[in-house]
Amino acid sequence: MPVCKHKIQGVRIARVSTVAFFVETQLHGQISALVHAGAQVTVVSSENDLERKIPGSYYVSIDIPRKINPLRDFVALIRLWLLFRRSGFEIVHSTTPKAGLLCCLAAKFAGVPVRLHTFTGQTWVGLTGAKHFLSKSSDKLIALWNTHCYADSASQKNFLVDSGVSSPERISVLGSGSLAGIDLARFDPLRFNEDDKDKLKAELGIPSTSQILLFVGRLSRDKGVVELLQAFQVVMTNEVDAYLILLGPAEIDVDLLLNGLTGDVRQRVLIPGFSSEPERFMAIADILLLPSYREGFGTVVIEAAAMGVPTIGSDIYGLSDAIVDRSTGLLVPVGNADRLAAAINDLLYDDAIRLEMGLNARRRVEKEFSAVRVSELLVGEYIRLLDANKETH
After folding, report:
1. In a 10 Å sphere around its CB, with 0-12 CB exposed, 13-18 middle and 19+ buried, how is residue 201 labelled?
2. d(CA 77, CA 65)
3. Cβ-Cβ contacts under 8 Å for 55 (sequence gap 6 or more)
């Protein structure tokens, strides 16, 4: 990745995430850009087993439980406070909900001058009762005790303000949105020739002429997998030559869901599991499908867009920023399998429109969502906030 134009030479920064997997898949390029800009970056997460170490950065493993666990949460809070006090960080920047809550407390008590958090989705949406109250209250505390917060989409920012989580002046969006932008060299359709595509199709048992629908993400109900399978069943009643690939870790009993499909349709649903190279599957995909109930932005949408693949997704906050309806993809009502099936049919049967949407999607990512652009904006924010802190002290 090219070096950022801005310089933050010697600035001590902690980037904190609940799990190392999130750093590996979402923040690797951005942290590398910060290192190239001269920062001293320490990555803090529950594990210290990243497959791709980021040259020039440091790693600290602190157990941060994803679910509520009072004892482990308290221990993590104390360990984070000790780390922040000892290391003298000038910036602590968290992502993921639990890391955000513990960091806003630990960094505040440790006297860290610039405390930041990026919201990438709200776990309390869809929850009820005490769980809803506690999760939403956690987000309110994150917004209150940090120096500033970011949302990875404009519609998510508006949702957080309208929901009373944050005041408008305490939250913003970097550029057009996204967490860290897209590495356009990695997500480039020209990286894969026809032989590469045919090889992957052969590995999956897919004929070279078949159309491919792709889902990338956690296989869970809140990602709309139930409606997706229902929609695919409807699409296949037209006897189209298509396959559905569900790429990601399973969090529900997928076999039980597949039992609801007819035998011939079930054979056309492939579940390879998690892949650290989703771009290989996007290279053979005709359409990306993301019928989620909630999304902060939908990074996978712009990854697919960079590969020239249009997306059909739910018309919800976050995805309504990632997808330009009828230009780079289609938006459908959340939880509506029939409308999802109709949208899939619209694009499967209209090659010209589908290809045009793919080209529009690639051009939009090049213009608005490159990792270099987002990293430049972030470094600029760091410099602004550090300067503002100096002026007040």
Report:
1. middle
2. 11
3. 32, 35
CA atoms of 297 and 157, how far apart (whole Å): 10
- What is the C-alpha to C-alpha distance for residues 93 and 76, in angstroms, rounded to an integer? 16
Q: Is the pLDDT of residue 5 over 80?
A: no
Q: What token pair was written down for 83?
A: 């780390």
- Helix or strand or coil: residue 109? helix
Query: Model's pTM, two decimal places?
Result: 0.88
Q: Is the pLDDT of residue 6 over 60?
A: no
CA–CA separation, 393 vs 388, rounded Å? 9
Amino acid at 243: Y
Tens of pLDDT, residue by residue over 254-266, are 888 888 898 899 9
DSSP 182: B
3-class state of residue 302 by DSSP: helix
Residue 221: HSE in the Cβ half-sphere, 13 Å Cα cutoff: 5
- The closest alpha carbon to 245, from 196, 201, 310, belongs to 201
